[in-house]
Specification:
single chain; about 170 residues; alpha+beta; Cyclic Phosphodiesterase, Chain: A; four-stranded antiparallel beta sheet; 4 helices; about 35% strand; globular
Length: about 170
């Protein structure tokens, strides 16, 4: 089963993108992937419990610039952020531990992350796919993040499984 952990942009940002482009590039709506991984879903409740232990303060992210990702995805980049990278790293380490630190799981992570899964994380929000780049637009530059999500892919569509609140500072 395919799983995805992610954060979401603000409703205002998502509303702006939907008004301009009509739909999202994903069945989850606009999001920033933290980690995508494959895992047997026999103990999904254990995975949820494992991810509930992530301890990161709420934080803000800064959106920086438009870019092309994977040749056909138009994205807005997220500036480097210690808290976002800490959240990503904690999720990677918790999921790895939950899966028993297997070489097979590490190879899958490297495949999905295109290299070292801790060093090659380049956060972004994809809002359009296709060969033609859409027009750029002005948008809010800061977004407050107070939770992250877990989804699973079923029948070719992503379905939210759980939401995890971040700590208050």
């Amino acid at each position: 089963m395919k799983y995805l952990t992610y954060i979401r942009p603000t409703q205002e940002f998502e509303r702006l993108v939907l008004e301009l482009y009509g739909s999202s590039a994903s069945s989850l709506g606009l999001h920033c992937t933290l980690l995508r991984f494959d895992m047997d879903n026999h103990n999904e409740s254990g995975l949820i419990k494992c991810l509930s232990g992530v301890m990161t303060d709420m934080f803000s992210i800064s959106l920086s610039e438009f870019d092309i990702f994977d040749k056909e995805s138009f994205v807005v980049k997220i500036s480097f952020n210690d808290n976002l990278h800490s959240l990503h790293k904690q999720i990677v380490e918790r999921v790895r531990a939950y899966n028993g630190y297997t070489a097979e799981f590490d190879q899958m992570l490297e495949k999905h992350c295109l290299g070292n899964y801790l060093d090659s994380y380049h956060p972004h929000i994809t809002f359009s796919r296709g060969k033609n780049n859409p027009d750029t637009f002005s948008f809010e530059k800061e977004m407050f993040i107070d939770k992250f999500y877990l989804a699973r892919k079923e029948n070719c569509a992503w379905e939210e499984v759980s939401c995890f609140k971040l700590c208050r500072k």
